[in-house]
Amino acid sequence: MGQGQTDLDSHWPIAQAFAHGRLYLTDPIPWLELVPRPEGGWYSPFPPLMAVLLTPFAFLGVVVDSNVTGAIFGGLSVALVWAMLLRLGVAYVPRLALTASWAFG
After folding, report:
1. Alpha-carbon distance 94 to 101, whole Å?
2. For 33, left (φ over 0), alpha (ψ -120 to 50), or beta?
3. Residue 41, phi-psi category: left (phi > 0), alpha (psi -120 to 50), beta (remainder)
């Protein structure tokens, strides 16, 4: 990481912006390609789901690592796919193949 570079993604800064009622960043993140706003500030071109999931933590002032949080939510989604396929009555081998393709896809 470079000087002052604390994280490699914009999820946590965008979650903090959401907690303050903004959809944009006020400070640049030079190692990311951000979209400039005409009024000043920058938009993140990345999907916002991770930032939305981190917003309650940002609102409470709890600092979390977005990489660890992403791994937790990713693991949870794999477990939910397994449970859904089990509930739908999908046989074991196809259920295993579909869950593995979900996990690594």
Report:
1. 10
2. beta
3. left
Instruction: State the Cα–Cα distance between residues 39 and 24, nearest whole angstrom.
Output: 10
Contacts of 15 (CB under 8 A, 6+ apart): 50, 51, 52, 54, 55, 57, 58, 66
Residues 6+ apart with CB under 8 A from 67: 7, 9
Does the pLDDT of residue 5 top 60, yes or no? no
CA atoms within 13 A of residue 21's CA, in its CB half-sphere = 0
Dist. CA 67–CA 61, nearest whole Å? 18
Looking at residue 37, the DSSP 8-state letter turns out to be P
pLDDT in tens, 12-68: 889 999 999 999 999 888 888 899 999 999 999 988 988 998 899 888 888 877 778
Please, what sign has the CA dihedral across residues 1, 56, 102, 33? negative
